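Protein in question quoted in full.
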Amino acid sequence: VQEAIIRYNASSNPAVKNRIYQEHIHKAFCKMAENLIHTFKFYYFDYPFEEVKNEVVSFLVMQMAKFQPDKGRAFSYFSVVGKNYLINEMFILKMLMKLLVNLIQNL
């Protein structure tokens, strides 16, 4: 997968990028998102599992251009990026819930 991400980032042709993503990257990102959600027990979202998984995969795709192979392995980089995304989303969700509870209590 790492080599596919490197090829994806090196290409400027959208058709080639799409083929690389579909054939080599998508399945790995989906599995990584599933593993992150289950390993770190991110079950507190009010959305179905598939929706959360797809959000994580979308975020990973947006971060592909930032991957630098000379700084480390793709697996490590995207694991940290995905986990941090889920942590930030959980924090935002908890803050919104607190605000909502405070708003309802003050009515």
About this structure: The chain has a mean pLDDT of 92.
